[in-house]
Amino acid sequence: MKNRVMIIGGVQAGKSTLMNTLLGKESTANKTQALVYDDWIVDTPGEYVENPMYYRNIMATSLEVTHVIYLQDATSARSVFPPQFSLGIPKIQIGVITKIDAPNADVERATALLKNVMTHGPIVKTSSWQKLGIEFIEPLIQLKTHEDIQQFVKDRDSPYLMYCSQ
Ligand SMILES: Nc1nc2c(ncn2[C@@H]2O[C@H](COP(=O)(O)OP(=O)(O)O)[C@@H](O)[C@H]2O)c(=O)[nH]1
Ligand SMILES: [Mg+2]
User: Fold this and answer.
1) In the chain, count of helices (H) and strands (E)?
2) Which ligand 1 atom lies nearest to the CA of residue 98?
3) Residue 149: domain span
4) Which of 1, 18, 46, 150 has the fewest CB atoms below 10 angstroms from its CB?
5) Number of structural domains found in the chain
6) How far, in Å, is the centroid of ligand 2 from the Cα of 67?
7) Distance 14 CA to ligand 1 centre (A)
8) Where does residue 154 rank: exposed (0-12), middle (13-18), buried (19+ CB within 10 A)?
């Protein structure tokens, strides 16, 4: 299977903006109503994680990808994921924090929220608007083992990239 990532996260968390930024496309203001496949990314509607009725859609879509991005909005005080959500999806996990440029962003809070969702893995702190941390995501989707990912994080030695393990 070609390496491909599914982005999941709450409504308005910045998923589609991140996808467009990663693919170098102009943002469209449209709300994501369904799955959007483009090249190596699958964008999902926020409702998929906000409503347990749709969890089976997440599970079904995960079969088509190698990696999953668990996305947390830095301006939000809550997580839309149930605790340890990544345990149910046997794919390589990547945490991404969005909107770190926002005046009300709280990156530490977002990191703590993601640590409740992911068992282990890299966390990338990003701003699509200011293009911060974005460059780490595509190379991470090329890596298939925890060892390689851990080494990648170590080698980059960036404030926008960390490895979490519990
Ligand atoms: N400050 C800031 N706002 C962002 C950023 N990325 C997205 N947004 C805003 O967050 C809102 C939701 O973005 P969208 O990508 O549609 O979220 P989605 O529902 O998760 O797909 C929009 O108003 C975006 O302009 C960012 O990097 N910084
Ligand atoms: Mg969207």
Assistant:
1) 6, 7
2) 27
3) 5-165
4) 1
5) 1
6) 18
7) 4
8) exposed
Cβ(163)–Cβ(121) below 8 Å: yes
> Taking the mean position of all CA atoms in its chain, how far away is CA 131?
15
pLDDT in tens for each of the 166 residues of the chain? 799 999 999 999 999 999 999 999 987 767 767 899 999 999 999 999 999 999 999 999 999 999 999 999 999 999 999 999 999 999 999 999 999 999 999 999 999 999 999 989 999 999 999 999 999 999 999 999 999 999 999 999 999 999 998 7
Whether 101 is in the pocket of ligand 1, judged by its Cβ within 6 Å, is yes
What CATH number does residue 111 fall under?
3.40.50.300
d(CA 82, CA 128): 25
